[in-house]
Each structure stands twice: as structure tokens, then as C-alpha cells.
Amino acid sequence: MAVGGEEIRVSETSGSLPTSIDSVINLDHGDPTMYEKFWREAGDAARLIIPGSQTMSYFSDVTNLCWFLEPEFGAEIRRLHRLVGNAVAGKDSYIIVGTGSSQLFQAALYALSTSPEVAGRGGARPLPVVSSAPYYSADRPVNSRHCGQANTLLDLSRIVTSPNQKPDASSADKAPSYPAATDLLQSGLFRWAGDAVTFKDGREPYIEVVCSPSNPDGLVKTESVASGNGMVIHDLAYYWPQYTAITNPANHDIMLFTASKCTGHAGMRLGWAIVRDRDVARRMIKFIEISTIGVSKDSQLRATKILKTVSDRYEVETTEESTKLFHFGRKTMRDRWRRLQGAVAASNVFSLPIFQPDYCNFMKETTLPFPGIFLSQVTYK
Question: What positions does the domain Alliinase C-terminal occupy (predicted)?
């Protein structure tokens, strides 16, 4: 374990941990393999065979604004959101598919920063991009004391369990994040400007990213900058009933979702955006068109089958809860949280945040949140 720049080995016999506030345990980054059991048991219901002659064209639907979106995939996205009730995805909104939500995030930055409204209002270039801290970032946190406690990021890749094992010092640099994605190309259009709460330039155009439930603290968030000059991107990757209560359908200008958090299929590299404004959607599509000439059709066809399987088991088939994705995911997350809480209570070193219950319209019950990114929230006692 790296403490103050020096390597400290955790005892293999006692498992004792140092209590320095500079201790870091890197859990970066998550891999949703917890869903493998569910999809193995789904068997042929989620199986797909793609003939060699299929998906050869660049085009999916030339009549659609997003011409590389497979129509069946778009239909299953709308169906799933209607089922869960977590987002408004009506016919007056535009579905845009991307190579993960990471590409859609950059497409949204491009679309908003090149809007005629921004050009007409003037303001500084590049356009500042902010998000309320703590935000999705690969940067190491700055520890701060409050109420006799200290925040810390758990960094498991730096735990040394044997004398021959070397800590992976580069792992934090491998994860995508809002700051890294914003500043990757050093764009003249936009730049990362840090914490939305301390942002002082709200009189000029800016972009705020609202991640809710938040990564990394699992809390429900809203806009932080009180200004009429901001444009907002809502990252709703974790707004699914296995992680949090679905209290109402989100209805925002730009909403981002990803298959990796919804169904666990991170390897498909698929995300989707629900966009209200046609011109914003058109510029997002242009970004994807120029950068990757569309999105894999094979992945979209597989995702169509996956989403259809999820919805069918709630709407069509009479099945046990264990065969329903969101119930399976919620039970798995609840069990993991209980094990974590037991381990933390026994450690006498860490404490966990206390979440408030809320009524979930999808599950039809009052429930606690079970964030999928919980371990980054541990604080020293």
C-alpha cells in the first residue's frame, strides 16, 4: 500500500491496515462480471447468430436522423425506458447510439460548444466544463479533514500481499474520466474547469455535467451552478433499479446511458443518448459520423437481443424474480453491500455513508440505494 509516497505491506496474518489519512487503496476500475451468472442462466433466450452477409452496409436507416442506429435497437431502448420508468424517451426525442457513453459524452461536448447560441452570446473560449465534486475522475483525490474524519480513496491495486508483488502505479491513469475525456485533445472548443460548486464564471456560457446517481459517491444530484447561461449533460448511467430507487422519469435535454451499467455488457461498447433538441442531436451525430463513421451494427443487434430479453421477462413471460435482470442485480448488490458493511464494522478503521430509503416506482417498494461504485466512499473513523 502506498502511504505518503512510501510502500507499506499489509500483514498477511493479521490483515492490519495503516490508519494514515494518506493511505490509498485503488479499486479502479470496475468490471460488471457480476452479471455473468444471470446471462449464463438465460441461455438461448439471449443467444444471437449473425450471418456473414448481414450488417455489411454503413447505413442502418437512412430515413432516421441517426442513420447508423439500428431501428430494432432504438425501439428496444424506448421500450425498456417505458418499462422501468427512469427516462422519458418519447417519439419527440432523438435516440443516438455511441461506442459507449464515453463517445456520447464527447459528442455532447462538441454539439453544445458549437451551438449558434453559444457563438452569439460570446464568452470565453474554450468553453468551461464543470461537475460537482466528487466527480468521475481518474485523478487521485486530495484528502480533507472534516468532523474528525478524513476522506480516502480505496486503491486495491496498490495493496502488496507478498514480498515479490509490485504495486501497479499506473492503474489510475488507465481509467476514462470527465477531466481526461474533456482535455484529451486539448480542444479549442471546451476545457475542463473543475468543481461546479466553486465555479465562478456562470455569467458566461458553460457546460455542467450532472452524474446522478453520482460516481463515485452514489448520491442523487442536480445542477449546482445557479445561472441561466449553462448547458447541462445528464449522465444517468446508474439510474437503474438495481442501484437506486426509480422515483420519476428523468426528462432532460441530454441524457446518457450505457449498456455496461444497465445489463453488464461492457464488452459490447454501446451507449445511447436521449436528446430533445434536433439541432443538438444533429451535431452529436456529425461528431460520431466524422470520428468513427457510425457504431458497430453487430453490437447493436446483440444489444437488441439483450434488451428484448430483459423486457420480455417483465412484460411477456411469467418468471421468477431470479430470472428478471433488475431483481437479480438488486439482490446481488444488496448481498454485496451487507458483506461490505459487516467487514467495515469488524475493521474498526473505516465507516460507510448512510443512505436514506426512498420509494421505487419500478420495484413497488421503499428501498435503500445500493451504489455500484460504493467502495470509493469509505472514510476513516
Answer: 25-138, 174-371
